[in-house]
Amino acid sequence: MNPTDNHRQIAYRRVAQLRSFYTHLAIYILINIALLLPYFMLNIAAIFWQRCFIIMIGVAGLGVLGHAMWVFGPKFFLPSKWESRKMKQFKDESERR
Looking at the whole model, is its pTM more than 0.85? Predict the structure, then answer.
């Protein structure tokens, strides 16, 4: 197998993952907007609706967050510069003892 073909497959897979995440995020935002519009326009003040809506946003938000972690990986949230700074900090602290 040609290395260029392998890189092309990896790039294609990465673009597909990113497209999937951004589609998921857009749907999450659009659905929440669609659910919030009638809530504010009609002044629905039912406690049941408020609790259900908050739970739904939270659970769906966790799904989007999990998808982001899967696509971008922990390096997005904890970059390697952070790791190297922490390693240096712990090394310096252990040398002082």
Answer: no
